[in-house]
Each structure stands twice: as structure tokens, then as C-alpha cells.
């Protein structure tokens, strides 16, 4: 979705392009009655396998469109829009989350291939390994423990056979 410049014939009117179609929307300041924004009727759940086939640029463009669409839906919600638009907010939010997830997965996969057979950076290592103490930290002892070991060393004895 793209929000174009104001319509020259009507100064309070904005032209929103959604899915190749132009919709006319009105600015909140210029509108006296409840604002009815035209939002794309083509909102459907996005299939993740289709997203994974897209390039990074296409995903970023889709993310920009979805964010613009959700902002229009939020304005529609505030100004008393139709109930079907309110239910679309959830679908668009999920779509934004899916696009962001696919973007981060692709980025991590690219990093994994770049670091193949090399030492992995911390964010690519498993969580348990990231949380693990270093060898130095694991070997440290408290002052009390050190004193106990020096004052009461392990008893050495031999049995007469």
C-alpha cells in the first residue's frame, strides 16, 4: 500500500494505492463525520512457503506495505470504522510477524553458510552454549572454599597389607 500526494481537486482527500487500485481517503483534520478508509479487500493469510521463495528486497517491500496497511486500519479503528476492518488488524499483524520471521531466518541461514567450518559468532551458537560459564569462571572458588581446602587438606594414608 502506498499513500500518494493529496488530490488536487479536493484538498482534504488523499489517494491511497493498495494492490494496484486507488482509494480516496480523507485527512482526519478535514473530515467532519466518521472517517471511512478504504482498505485492501485482498487481505488473506500469507503462506510462509511463498514468503521463503521471495528475495530480501521483495520481503522488505511487502513489510512496508503491510505496515502502511496496519496504520490505515488503526486510523479506521479510532475513527469508528467497519467491524470487518477491526478483525483484519489481527491478520495483518500476523502477516507482519511472518515476514519479519522469514527475514531473520534467511539472514541467519546466510550467516551460517558464511561461517561454515569456522568459529560461529555467539548469536549463532545454541542457547545452552551461550549461557555456559567459561573454563576460567567454572574453575573459580570462593574465599571460604579456598581456606577450607588449605586448612583441611585431603587426608593421605596407606594401609599395611
Question: What this model shows, in words?
Answer:
- Belongs to the universal ribosomal protein uL29 family.
- InterPro entries: Ribosomal_uL29, Ribosomal_uL29_CS, Ribosomal_uL29_euk, Ribosomal_uL29_sf.
- Residues 49-76 form a coiled coil.
- The chain is mainly alpha-helical and 161 residues long.
- It has a single domain (2-144), classed as Helix Hairpins, CATH 1.10.287.
- 49% of the residues lie in helices and 11% in strands.
- The protein has helices spanning 48-52, 56-78, 83-114, 127-131, 135-139, 143-151, and strands at residues 2-6, 13-18, 21-26.
- The protein has a 3-stranded antiparallel β-sheet with strand order 1-2-3, with helices on one face.
- A hairpin with a 6-residue loop joins strand 1 (2-6) and strand 2.
- Helix 2 packs antiparallel against helix 3.
SSE blueprint and pairings:
Blueprint: E1 2-6, E2 13-18, E3 21-26, H1 48-52, H2 56-78, H3 83-114, H4 127-131, H5 135-139, H6 143-151
Antiparallel strand pairs: 1-2, 2-3
Structural class by sheet pairing and helices? mainly alpha
Kindly report how far apart the N and C termini lie: 91 Å
Please name the CATH architecture: Orthogonal Bundle
| CATH fold descriptor | Helix Hairpins
What is the beta-strand fraction? 5-15%
Just give the CATH class.
Mainly Alpha
Summed over residues and divided by their number, the pLDDT gives a mean of: 81
Amino acid at each position: 500500500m502506498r499513500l500518494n500526494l493529496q488530490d488536487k481537486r479536493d484538498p482534504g482527500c488523499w489517494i491511497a494505492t493498495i494492490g494496484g487500485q486507488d482509494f480516496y481517503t480523507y485527512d482526519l483534520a478535514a473530515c467532519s463525520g466518521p472517517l471511512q478508509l478504504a482498505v485492501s479487500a485482498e487481505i488473506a493469510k500469507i503462506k510462509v512457503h511463498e514468503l521463503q521463495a521471495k528475495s530480501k528486497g521483495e520481503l522488505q517491500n511487502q513489510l512496508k506495505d503491510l505496515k502502511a496497511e496496519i496504520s490505515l486500519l488503526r486510523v479506521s479503528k479510532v475513527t469508528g470504522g467497519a467491524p470487518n476492518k477491526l478483525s483484519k488488524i489481527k491478520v495483518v499483524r500476523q502477516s507482519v510477524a511472518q515476514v519479519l520471521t522469514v527475514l531473520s531466518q534467511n539472514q541467519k541461514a546466510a550467516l551460517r553458510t558464511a561461517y561454515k567450518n569456522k568459529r560461529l559468532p555467539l548469536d549463532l551458537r545454541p542457547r545452552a552454549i551461550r549461557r555456559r560459564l567459561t573454563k576460567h569462571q567454572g574453575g573459580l572458588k570462593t574465599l571460604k572454599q579456598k581456606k577450607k581446602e588449605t586448612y583441611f587438606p585431603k587426608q593421605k594414608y596407606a594401609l599395611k597389607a
